[in-house]
Amino acid sequence: MTKQPENEPNKKQQQLEDFKVDHEGQDLTTNQGTKVSNTSDSLKAGERGPTIMEDFHFREKVTHFDHERIPERVVHARGFGVHGYFQVYEPLTDLTKAKFLQDPNVKTPVFVRFSTVVGSRGSADTVRDVRGFATKFYTEEGNFDLVGNNMPIFFIQDAIKFPDLVHAIKPEPNNEIPQASAAHDTFWDWVVNNQETAHMIMWLLSDRGIPRSFRMMEGFGVHTFRLVNSEGKARFVKFHWKPKLGVHSLTWDEAQKIAGKDPDFNRRDLWDAINDGEYPEFELGLQVIEEEQEFDFDFDILDATKIWPEEQVPVKIVGKMTLDRNQDNFFTETEQAAFHLGNVVPGIDFTNDPLLQGRLFSYLDTQLLRLGGPNFHEIPINRPIIQYYNNQRDGFHRMTIDKGKVSYFPNSIRQNDPTPAPGKDGGYEHYQEKVDGRKVRTRSESFNDHFSQARLFWNSMSPAEKKHIIKAFYFEVGNVKDKKIRQKVVDMFNQVDHDLAKEIAKGIGANQPTKKNNAAITETSPALSQENTNKSPETRKVAVLVDEGFNYNELKQIMVACEKQHVHLEFISKTFSPVNSAEGDQIEPHKSFANSHSVMYDALFIPGGQHIDMLSGYKEAKDFVNDTFAHAKPIGATNEALELLANTLVKNIAYTNDHTGEVYSNLGVVTVNDAHDLTQFNQAFIDAVAQHRHWMRENHDRKQA
Ligand code: HDE
């Protein structure tokens, strides 16, 4: 992870500066600029008399307040935006004429909005859901929006089904229950009646549905797009974002607890990382298929319920996005950002994917209501960094003052200006794909295989990932009241994998499925498993339990070791009062037990010292250890701290208690007894932190502590 303050002028940031207002040191005024003498008492006829109409300040203040809200997005309502820049690693001239993909020295400003899909604006971050990953590139040729998700496929193949999908997955309309994640009866009813959802359901119920951080998830353009070079040669392409920190998730139990303890968990994580200068980085990857190879695959490359397995079509890494700046104002930036798949630049083009085609209509349309008219492109966050020129005029909230009397084309008064530019001068020319067909409301037969890739996904999961998927079925389908629907789910997923269906049936009280021939897929795609992701300790958060009499020498050593590897420690104690070590050094806790919980951390460390006597008496300390253990996260304990582990779930696995000073590391529990120099221990602990989870431990979490 690079720490590089952005010194070069960023054109989007410069543009935004013109709209920013700093209120510090200013007198209060009305929106007309008139200074206000009192904003706490309305104008009344007598001290105890009625408020009078004349009070223009009261009316303006309250009217504005009354109109503060705009409709939330119909999907992806809860989101969080950050700024950054993108740089290509080497010119992509062969593939595309898009200017921002030519020069490695050019930093293209970006704004990224991460989101959940189903929940409303105030819902929790860590629900099981797809995550939106929408990127606006402010290029010198206009805005390019890559409006993607953290899963590479989608529920449906044709956009006309989207309203049905969203009606089924959002809270049920009679009582608005459940909030934030997929509805139960209506959604699963819809799933079993739309078997093209099978593959996406596997992704949604996998660990990908509960990311640890927006910084630790992949992004995908989902659809097949086209790249076109200056010779007019086109190729099919899929876009990928690969997080430098790897792809990591929460456990379901954590996700649920965090939703209560810290509903802002993912947005806070992103905000803090950027404020701390730990800028999230994502590499841009391209999968490219030559036009001549369009029909070389056993899936249709225009079907958005299919991936292009990375082993078959490798992902070429072509550039990097660095997110280095938090927004100044949530409403004007995150909330007013308007993404649109149709915002493209020359060199990037569309295909006939019917899901993509439908989205091209929806995104512009939805902003008209949400942002109140056709001029939302003038809102600062949406403006391109170059001036736009056309004959579109007027409408609500028009801000541009267009000079002259001409607002039509063609014209002779202004010699046709603004004039359409031919392709050679940078005008966007649609790729001239030959199309010929009858008007039909049918779907291509090549879109009919709904189960092979769902099975490929299942085959590619590690044993722990498979277990998590099964448990997710238990939760989600277990909440469906209608038994017939539950049974249909079992029958549907029997077509993906018989053993999976048998397991689902067991957990949800359905009849066992009869053996059928599953889709004939035996391969795996290792790229699909999070087990094979980048593993790094950087930016992980470790909770450190301390109380009066802790061993400062031990704490100091781990602090130094962790700092070197960008691992963050937070001290947690019974209260916020400063805590003294046995040696007399004092530290200030970052959190007390009352406002922290193990689910907010990636690992736990307990230094030795006399404080263990006290910590052993606190239920909260024991809970910390037990939950960290149950969630398969690393635990480090030194010397006297081992005594605390003896009364917790840790006792279910082997850890050291001998006095040899040897470091012992088992399933992510790292321990040492009788050691003063912790060099070896620290490395073993940080290695365990880099592993993130030690899933084998899930087999031990049931036994009572
Ligand atoms: Fe969207 N989607 N979507 N979607 N979508 C919206 O646009 C839509 C789909 C995605 O941070 C809406 O401005 C249709 C796939 C993201 O502001 C709306 C279909 C993918 C965001 C809309 C899809 C996405 C949206 C709601 C079926 C991944 C949030 C508010 C064809 C590739 C953007 C808005 C942000 C938002 C329509 C399916 C991603 C209604 C009709 C597939 C990341 O226009």
TrEMBL record:
It catalyses: 2 H2O2 = O2 + 2 H2O. Its EC number is 1.11.1.6. Transmembrane segments: none annotated. This is Catalase. The lineage of its organism: Bacteria, Bacillati, Bacillota, Bacilli, Bacillales. GO terms for molecular function: catalase activity. It is an enzyme of class 1 (oxidoreductase). Residues 1-48 are annotated as: Disordered. It comes from Piscibacillus salipiscarius. Keywords: Heme, Hydrogen peroxide, Iron, Metal-binding, Oxidoreductase, Peroxidase. Belongs to the catalase family. HPII subfamily. Residues 1-26 have a biased composition (Basic and acidic residues). Residues 27-42 have a biased composition (Polar residues). InterPro entries: Catalase (IPR018028), Catalase_AS (IPR024708), Catalase_clade2 (IPR024712), Catalase_clade2_helical (IPR043156), Catalase_core (IPR011614), Catalase_haem_BS (IPR002226), Catalase_immune_responsive (IPR010582), Catalase_large_C (IPR041399). Decomposes hydrogen peroxide into water and oxygen; serves to protect cells from the toxic effects of hydrogen peroxide. PANTHER family: CATALASE (PTHR42821), CATALASE-B (PTHR42821:SF1). Its cofactor is heme.
